[in-house]
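Continuing the series of single-chain predictions for the mutant panel. This is the parent chain; the variants come on the following pages.
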Amino acid sequence: MRRNIVFLLLCVLIGCSSKDDSEPDRPPVLNKSIDMVAEANQWYINGSLEELDEANGIIKEIRRKLIYYFEGDTLINGLQFKKMYSKQLDSIYHQPISGGVQQFNSTFKAINYVAAMRQNADVVVYIAPNQSTAEVYADFNIQLGDTLNYKWNTYNATVSAIDSIKIGTNYLTQYKLSNDQYFYEGIGASYGLFNTWQTNARLGGFLCCFSMGNDKIAIEKGFYSPANTNLCPEF
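Parent structure:
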């Protein structure tokens, strides 16, 4: 009898152990904080502009693609900053004012130094080319009702709603503003990285995609948001 009881206890113990091993792993905890100043990040910008050249009887259209990215470090005033560049592609088309088929004219490519940027917790500062003094680019520590502390928030827009967007296994915060524009944690404004809120943004002003390493998202609230991230303007 005693032997049977011991055997039953062993079976119970083995059964419990097998159950623990068969339980699915807990899902990973999602990181809810994304740094803006990181070499893994890239911003994809689209834009177009038409110019009337009456003297030559043509309408010139420039279609611009920009990719912003960080590459390398620099010391300014004893502090370490990341260097931001833009890779630019301008495709230029001509069309007679009197009508007719639009013709491809030329392409311009360039890589430009944009700014030195540094992040301390939620605050990002930047130094423009040929400058030595840092200015606040944005403070991402904002709550509902706060005025957005963003360099180009010239109309003092406030946060009217807060949501989140998934990118890979992370989430970033999306802020809807009182001027019906959007701002994103770790990304910046839907108008682009260095633009004020304006009704008619000029050439190359609109953010369409953002990537963090191998993960990409389309900026759905942007003006040039692609149908999917495979259409982000790589070049």
